[in-house]
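Section 5.1 Outputs to date
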Amino acid sequence: MKIALLVGGSSPEREISKLSGIAVYNGLKELGHEVVLVDPAYGKNQPEDISKYFQKEDYTGISSTNYVESFELELFKDVNLAFIGLHGKWGEDGTVQSLLELKGIKYTGSKVLASSISMDKNMSKILFRNSKVGTAKWITVSPGTFELKPLQKAIKSDLGFPCIIKPNDQGSTVGLTICKNKNQVEEAIALALKFSDKALIEKYIPGRELTVAILENEPLPVLEIKPKHLLYDYECKYTSGMSEYEVPAKLPEKVKKKMQSQALLAFKALGCEGYARVDFRVNKKYEIYCLEVNSLPGMTSTSLVPKMAKSAGISFNELLERIIKTALK
């Protein structure tokens, strides 16, 4: 098939998208597909040299305002499918999904509404709660809608310290702070609001970090992440040697089954399709708390979803083909 692979984008996760993009590009080529590369942040100024889509560069001219014109390019002529290799805002929030639907092009991953909801952590947690998916207590604040001292008191009484403060609609722990006491609240909220128009304040769950991939409405084996830091933060995610991974995770069988069930329930609660990754924290009592659903998870050959697929006997290229097959239904 002729497949348009969308890479890069203008979110803070641009460089991570490139890592996913090059792995997917090589896999699609090995499978015999014709691959056309498109970076929507470049607009009409798409590179002629394929390598430029994946190399680190200065950000001059990179903008979300270029997205619409990029979808008017002849590159999309006779495309059978768009494989979305974008991450974060303007990639998995329904923006490119809407533009592809306007062109009548099928694409991988969840549709517009589910993509938008999965990026909205507050809305996701409301739907988790309504669907009986365990999730940590939280508070949301927007600029000008709160007073610091009453908020500090509310956090202490309702959530406790430490707590997690993060942007409401970013991924890869961009703008996240482990807030240890009330004196750090103001600075942590200010950081979160640099990346979003809303900050989410969440109860910190001590324990283990785990994740479950969903592929074609079936949960894959549970994977445990063992970061060097207290949380699986940006450095632990993308710096070699900063995390270890175990799949299948060493948990009681009934806990793993419950987590897989919770993952599928969370996936369906948001209306997701195709594939996704559902992230959890588990405490010493094996109580399970869903953090979020990542509707366009990392897709390098060593990312978490491919690791879980491999544990289930699914190669990276087979994983790509199954994602494509689901998208074309």
